[in-house]
Amino acid sequence: MSAREALLSVEGVLRELGDRKALGSFYLEFGRRLEVLKLVERYCRRGSLVLDLGAQPFIVSCALRRMGYEVVAFDVEPEPHVKVAESCGVKVVRCDLERDDLGVAGADCAVFSEVLEHLHYYYAPAVLAKISRALKPGGVLVLTTPNVASLFRRLRLLLGRQPVYRYHVREYTMGEVVSMVEAPAGPGFYASEGMCAKRGVFKPCLVLCLWLRSRVG
Length: 217
Hints:
The chain is of the alpha/beta class. The chain has 8 helices and 7 strands; from the N terminus they run αααβαβαββαβααββ. The chain has a single domain, classed as 3-Layer(aba) Sandwich (Rossmann fold), CATH 3.40.50.150. It is 37% helix and 24% strand. It has a 7-stranded mixed sheet, sandwiched between helices. Helix 3 crosses helix 4.
């Protein structure tokens, strides 16, 4: 099953087992999730182990499972949508990324999509280091996070409005994210490539998307 087919197939699961919020997220964030799935498809062979971090409502987790990957999904509060994950054969682990160890090693790939901005910036490098240790050497991390330097956020600031979404602890520029993941004493990644993306179109740079390789296992 292709990335698009797998993602589209999750809609039925959400209608049966999800709620209005999860279904709304499916439509609103379809393009971003599709780009994430395409990157996993590009860099990780089918059947490999993928970690989905901050996974609720498990839309990406289910799509990855239907693409033929082994998936372990981590979330601080998985209960509201755990039936969605279980229906797709996804293993769910309750985990506070800032405080708990992942308890996994040798994974081929990790997805860390729209989570970094919710972490306290003091803990963000440590969380990324945990992910790096959970991956095998050369394993791939697909990371997306809002771009604080986007045109949309600049316009909001010019209009006297807070540019950072109220539920986000900290938003970053591309340079800040790359510096964080590539710091010599940092998480242990190097950036293979990066781009700006929104709903599958690489302008106007509302979302940052990087795929990184782990130096350590």
